[in-house]
Amino acid sequence: xxxxxxxxxxxxxxxxxxxxxxxxxxxxxxxxxxxxxxxxxxxxxxxxxxxxxxxxxxxxxxxxxxxxxxxxxxxxxxxxxxxxxxxxxxxxxxxxxxxxxxxxxxxxxxxxxxxxxxxxxxxxxxxxxxxxxxxxxxxxxxxxxxxxxxxxxxxxxxxxxxxxxxxxxxxxxxxxxxxxxxxxxxxxxxxxxxxxxxxxxxxxxxxxxxxxxxxxxxxxxxxxxxxxxxxxxxxxxxxxxxxxxxxxxxxxxxxxxxxxxxxxxxxxxxxxxxxxxxxxxxxxxxxxxxxxxxxxxxxxxxxxxxxxxxxxxxxxxxxxxxxxxxxxxxxxxxxxxxxxxxxxxxxxxxxxxxxxxxxxxxxxxxxxxxxxxxxxxxxxxxxxxxxxxxxxxxxxxxxxxxxxxxxxxxxxxxxxxxxxxxxxxxxxxxxxxxxxxxxxxxxxxxxxxxxxxxxxxxxxxxxxxxxxxxxxxxxxxxxxxxxxxxxxxxxxxxxxxxxxxxxxxxxxxxxxxxxxxxxxxxxxxxxxxxxxxxxxxxx
Length: 539
Known about the structure:
Strand content: under 5%
Number of strands: 5
Strand order of the largest sheet: 2-1-3-5-4
Radius of gyration: 26 Å
Structural class: mainly alpha
Shape: globular
Helix content: 55-70%
Distance between the termini: 96 Å
C-alpha cells in the first residue's frame, strides 16, 4: 500500500514535469548552435548517408529517424527531447524505488520537475535528453547485474546483463564521447561491491563491442577524417592551435577552476540558490559541496546503500572527467546536466546524514527546509521563464519572434538569402547550421577561425570553396550584455582583405539600423585583386 502511495506521488511529479516542459517549450533554435548542428547532420544522414563526424553520431542518427518520417520539423524533433527526459525519469524511478529511500528519490525528481534550467533541454535538440535516457538504462542494468550476481558467472548472465551493459556503454560513447567513461563507473562500482569477476568480463565485453563497432564503421564509412573532440581538448585553447598542448599541471588547474564554476555557480543556479544569470563563483561554496558529497558517499558506503553509492560513483567520475578534460572557457552548465539527478541524491543524502548528527527530528526539519526552499526558489525562477505569447507566436509560424535584435537580424538575413539569391549562390557566415535551418535547408559556409592574416590567402580560401557572398552580423559576444562587443571573426577576416583590396566586397543588403545590431550581406568581387593591381600599374 505504501509503495503504491509513492507510485502515485511519482506519477504526479511526472505530470508536473510534462506540464512545465510544455509551458517552457522553446520552438526556436538555441543560440549556442549545437542543436542546429545535430539537425543538419541528421538531414545529411537522410539525404546522403553521411557519417556524422566530430560529435557523437548516435544522436544525429536518432533524429534522422524523425527527419525521414516528418522532414526537419522543429516541433517534432524538439518533442523527442521531452519524451526522452520523461522516459529517463521513469526508468530511473523504476530501478531505484525499492533500493532507495522513496522520500529522497521523489525529492530529487521533484526538484528537477519544476526547474527551468533542467527543463530547457526538454525542448532543445541537444544530445543530453537521449544521453539521460540511455544512462538510466545503463544504471538499471548495472543494479540488476548486482542483484543477480553469483560466484559462478553463467553464459545466460553474460548475455542477458553484461553484454547489454557493454552495449549501453557503446551507445553512451556514440552519443557523447565522454560516455565511454561509463565503463569506469561500472568497474569502480562493481569493485566497491566486490564483484570483481563481473567487472573483468564487462571490460572485455565493452572492448569487444567497441572493436566490433569500429570494424563495422570502417567497412561502411572508412577512416574518420578531420579534427576530433579529443584533439581539441588536448590543446591549451580549442581554437588557437599555436598556443600548444596542455601540460599535466594545466589539467589540474582546469579541474580546480572548473570545479568552482560548475559546483559553486551552476549547481547552485540549478538548485535555485543563485539567480539564473548569476556569474558569481565561490571557493568556499565549492569546498562545502565537496564536503557534503564526500560525507554522503562515505556514509552510503558504510551502510551499503547501493543506489547512493552508484549515484556517487557516476556523478563523481563523470563530473571529474569533465572538470579535468574541458578548457575553462566553455563554462556551459549543460555539460553536467546528465549527472545532476545523481548528484542531487548524494547531496540530499549527505545533508540528511550531517543533520542526523544533531538528532533525527532536526535532520527531518533541516533537510525538509532546504528541499522546500530549493523548490520554492526554482519554481519562482521557472514561472518567470514561461512566455506563452512567444510559444504561441512561434507555433503560428513566426520563428524569429523572441530572439534578441542581433539574432533576429542575422537569421532574418539568412531567410532573405534563401528567398532572393540564386540557387547556386554559396554564402559564408559565422553560424552556418543555424542559417541552414532558417533558410529552409540551403547550405552555408562556416567561418569559425583562420590561421593567416594574408589577404590573398584569405580571399583564395573563399574562392576555392565557391563562396559568392558573405554575411557580416553583429552577434553579441556576451548574449546577456549588448554593447560588450561582438563575435568578430568575420569582421577581422574581411578587414585583412579590405586593407589590401578595398573593392573586394560590396554591400547589397542590410537588416536593422546601426542602433539595432544590424546584419549586412556582401557580394564578393574576386576581380578586385586584378583590377586594383592594374590601377596601381597605371598610376
